[in-house]
């Protein structure tokens, strides 16, 4: 079945590279008007041009998602540029891995609070549209203990939990909220590519635990995000879908 988002207005936080880029391009290819934000100006503009090539309205703005007021401004300005809002994707991560003040601050400020703040800014706009969809991006790290990146695992677990609370709270407003939990995803310039090129043992160790013996692709996560935001999933809310090739099973 072909997903059609013609006339829909979509915002993707952290939408300039990797998973976020694939999500944004997936919506654009399906007919949506798409707004993105990220910190890196060069990749942001490159992705904006790729979105615009699909012939739909687009908006791109540099935004530090750890900055609360900046998040609210981005949502408001992007939605105004697109003429409203139907779908919000909270994708960004601070990648806080070290179990210290800095690691926790990165994870809490971006993975958790940017999700909260962008959602709060988007909800009145989704209500104006008569309802809509929020999709949060977590990680399979949120399902198990981690000795390597405890803060990252903890904040991703918080995103999964917050998704369920959002879903129950917003159902009366005809707003569905779901979550995807990717496994190890490799893309140009991403952390797994860097580890592979550096010959790190961690890469081969993780790869050996994935039943399909390969890393995931960003578009494979994007496909599930689009499904959850589409009318095909209109009776699905409060759920977290693992997109990991069975990695969590091993």
Automatic annotation (TrEMBL):
This is 3-oxoacyl-[acyl-carrier protein] reductase. Belongs to the short-chain dehydrogenases/reductases (SDR) family. It comes from Stella humosa. One of its GO terms (molecular function) is oxidoreductase activity, acting on the CH-OH group of donors, NAD or NADP as acceptor. GO terms for biological process: fatty acid elongation. Pfam families: adh_short_C2. InterPro entries: NAD(P)-bd_dom_sf, SDR_fam. It comes from the Bacteria.
């Amino acid at each position: 079945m072909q997903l059609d988002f013609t006339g829909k207005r979509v915002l993707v936080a952290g939408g300039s590279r990797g998973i976020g880029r694939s999500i944004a391009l997936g919506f654009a290819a399906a007919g949506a008007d798409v707004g993105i934000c990220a910190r890196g100006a060069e990749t942001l503009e490159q992705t904006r041009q790729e979105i615009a090539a699909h012939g739909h309205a687009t908006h791109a703005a540099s935004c530090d998602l750890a900055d609360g007021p900046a998040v609210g401004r981005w949502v408001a300005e992007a939605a105004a540029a697109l003429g409203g809002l139907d779908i919000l994707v909270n994708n960004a991560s601070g990648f806080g891995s070290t179990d210290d003040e800095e690691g926790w601050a990165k994870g809490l400020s971006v993975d958790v609070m940017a999700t909260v703040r962008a959602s709060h800014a988007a909800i009145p706009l989704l209500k104006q549209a008569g309802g809509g969809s929020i999709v949060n991006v977590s990680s399979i790290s949120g399902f198990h203990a981690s000795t390597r990146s405890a803060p990252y695992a903890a904040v991703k677990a918080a995103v999964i939990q917050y998704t369920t609370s959002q879903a129950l709270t917003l159902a009366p407003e005809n707003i569905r909220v779901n979550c995807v939990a990717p496994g190890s995803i490799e893309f140009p310039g991403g952390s797994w590519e860097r580890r592979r090129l550096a010959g790190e043992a961690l890469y081969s160790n993780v790869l050996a635990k994935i039943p399909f013996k390969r890393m995931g692709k960003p578009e494979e996560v994007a496909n599930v995000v689009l499904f959850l935001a589409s009318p095909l999933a209109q009776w699905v809310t409060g759920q977290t879908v693992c997109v990991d090739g069975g990695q969590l099973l091993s």
